Predict the 3D structure of the following.
Amino acid sequence: MDPNRRDFMKTASVAALGSAAAQLALQNGAYASGDDTIKVGLVGCGGRGTGAASQALSTNGNVKLVAVGDAFEDRAKGAIKNLKDQLGEKGERVAVQDEKIFTGFDAYQKVIDSGVDLVILATPPGFRPIHFEYAVKSGRNIFMEKPVAVDAVGVRQVLEANKIAKEKKLKVGVGLQRHHEARYLETIKRIHDGEIGKVLALRAYWNGGGVWDPPLSREKAKSEMEYQMRNWYYYNWLCGDHIVEQHIHNLDVANWVMDGFPVRANGMGGRQVRTDKKYGEIYDHHAVEFEYADGTRCYSQCRHIANCWNSVSEHAHGTKAQADISGGRFFDGVNWKYNGPNKNPYQVEHDDLFAAIRAGAEYNEADNGAMSSMTSILGRLCTYSGKVIEMADAIKSEISLMPKSFSWDAEMPVKPNADGYYPIAVPGVTKVI
Ligand SMILES: NC(=O)c1ccc[n+]([C@@H]2O[C@H](COP(=O)([O-])OP(=O)(O)OC[C@H]3O[C@@H](n4cnc5c(N)ncnc54)[C@H](O)[C@@H]3O)[C@@H](O)[C@H]2O)c1
């Protein structure tokens, strides 16, 4: 819908509906349907995209999924079936006509251009800045998954586009769902209120056994692009490495406690167990020390190795007590434990976003999403290079990990050697900024 038509629809709808709530919502540019239905489009129809769509369709009020897009046809079509199955009696909210199922690299444009009020962006994160910028230019409300970028160039693109989103009063949610989880909200509020004293240090972990094995074999892949896209976790231009893709959640909590972002970091990491060529170019462990402006350190680890100590958690050490933030408790000086309700934060983040859209309230999580993405990118730059890196230098980096163009036979930013192995970053040698 072009801007003039959107304005016309707003005026026409307000006249037709006449209700105060609809008037308020439409005046605030919230949604442009002829009634109070929020029309949703989904870009990236995998596990999380389908989950996010299901949560969007489970919010209060009229909401419909009207368009889906994926690079691959099997994923786009599969998501519609999965969603109908998951939603049960709310399955009629999945109202995607065949001509609104889009595939290929331009599927995102077609979904965004198909008259949706809100678009869910849930592809691998490398594409997010491109998709976010287009959605903002098109005036859509947005829910985008974390991370929102895999390199500093992408982070800057998101921050720039978000200036326009804020001018347009678009509502933007980012999938850092701990911000919508009652236990985290209460625990961090109490830390901010000084209950554990001054925070001297933080610890953050995403140590686990790893994620899915690459599903597509080299023999079956039609091109290097298809090979990397189907196996996206193991390529940095798509994923950013697991320190960016997963550990962002824990580093984002550290930033939230500190109410800011690290000024510098150093770290070490490598690839010790997951070394087969099918595992692309990412490391299997990273350990980073982040430093905030007041000198507070966050000691962070993330590991993808089976049969080791596992923990996905965040902790703060204060002058009066310690906090197990993820566990919602204080000890060693002050004893407190969160005992309140803890609704599924994946649902609450959509409830909150959709309520803001309907009320025309301010709602924008993109700057925080961009800076927490940049924090985890800074960590990767440190482990790959072995250097101390300043945030101020990292965020200015002109090194883009992305391909120059997108097609199934495009020139790839990383290529295997004759034996199928990809170059792996070597601390002390690899240049990262
Ligand atoms: N907030 C959370 O807790 C959480 C949990 C899981 C995943 N995620 C995030 O969600 C995103 C998706 O992860 P997932 O687990 O759903 O992965 P997935 O592989 O299940 O789904 C990704 C989908 O995107 C499609 N795709 C890839 N490139 C595309 C393009 N250019 N245009 C359109 N479609 C494209 C793929 O074909 C695939 O169907 C990632 O950013 C991930 O970090 C967040």
Summary: The pocket of nicotinamide-adenine-dinucleotide is lined by residues 43-49, 69-72, 75, 105, 107-108, 122-125, 127, 145-146, 175, 177, 229, 245 (CB under 6 Å).
